[in-house]
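Entry under discussion copied across for reference:
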Amino acid sequence: MAYLEGWLRRAENEPEGEHTGYMLEIEADLSGISGLEELIGDQLAVTGDVEIVDYPERGKIMVFKVTSSAVLEEDESDEEEPQEGRGEA
């Protein structure tokens, strides 16, 4: 069984019946992923490990350390140009 911690948000602007209505946002460390800025807005599949990071001001925070990623669904503006291998660590 998986264990996750994150911030619960109500999903907005999602088609009714196509979404549960909620999102659980977790902090992710994507520092090992190249071309990160190009991935913003894309739907990703990621692999990695859960780590507890002890920040000086925030204290202990669970962070998902991403080791590899793959685009599942590209942002509509990116559909014109295929980007093979984009986001691989």
User: Anything to note?
Assistant: The mean pLDDT is 79. The chain has one helix and five strands. Residues 20-73 form one domain. Residues 52 and 62 are 5 Å apart (CA to CA).
